Amino acid sequence: MHRFVQSIDPVLKELGYCCGQQYIYVPSPMLCYGKQQCCEISRYSSYYYYNNPDPSQFNLSNDVYRFCSTCFNSIKTESIFIGDDPTQTLVEIPKKLFLLAINNKEKPEIMIDCIVCVRRWHQVCALHLDQIWSEGFICNTCIYQYNIKRKKNCYIAQKLIATDLSS
């Protein structure tokens, strides 16, 4: 795979694309709802989750509630009492409604399309944010080929205020 990427990278760059890489983000740790949310569900660990069908329910406003296997199995009753505010009435959820999962969901890097030539670029390779360039992404090939002027990014490191922490 590494050899393929090394050989395809220059070809794709010459064709006006960003690269031949496949960027993915590894699963991030999640917070366990047990033990006052002090537990962490690490990458590739199993956990139990409850999909809340009614987030407008009193004291149960999250879409998903997760428990690490240790906390889930330490609860010896057939139900789990959960709630957003422990000082309010907790909601009883049967343990059988919780599903087993593994924290292994990898996320691919977002792909964006050039609004001129429709070439696909990784968002990270393009250094593009819609909040800065709301008109859309224009790749470097189109900028040079069609002499397109792009709005300057005013959010650059040189414009940050220097403080004791930054020095």
Automatic annotation (TrEMBL):
Presence of keyword Nucleotide-binding: no
SUPFAM superfamilies associated with the record: FYVE/PHD zinc finger
UniProt function note: Acetyltransferase enzyme. Acetylates histones, giving a specific tag for transcriptional activation.
Record's catalysed reaction(s): L-lysyl-[protein] + acetyl-CoA = N(6)-acetyl-L-lysyl-[protein] + CoA + H(+)
GO BP, one annotated term: positive regulation of transcription by RNA polymerase II
Protein localization: Nucleus
EC number in record: 2.3.1.48
EC category name: transferase
Domain named CREB-binding protein/p300 atypical RING: residues: 11-50
GO function terms (MF aspect): chromatin DNA binding; histone acetyltransferase activity; transcription coactivator activity
Organism superkingdom: Eukaryota
Stated name of the protein: histone acetyltransferase
Location of the Histone acetyltransferase p300/CREBBP PHD domain: 108-143
Chief localisation class: nucleus
GO cellular component, one term: nucleus
InterPro entries: Histone_AcTrfase_Rtt109/CBP, PHD_P300, RING_CBP-p300, RING_CBP-p300_sf, Znf_FYVE_PHD, Znf_RING/FYVE/PHD
Pfam families the record matches: PHD_P300 (PF23570), RING_CBP-p300 (PF06001)
Keywords from the UniProt entry: Chromatin regulator, Nucleus, Transcription, Transcription regulation, Transferase
Transcription recorded as keyword: yes
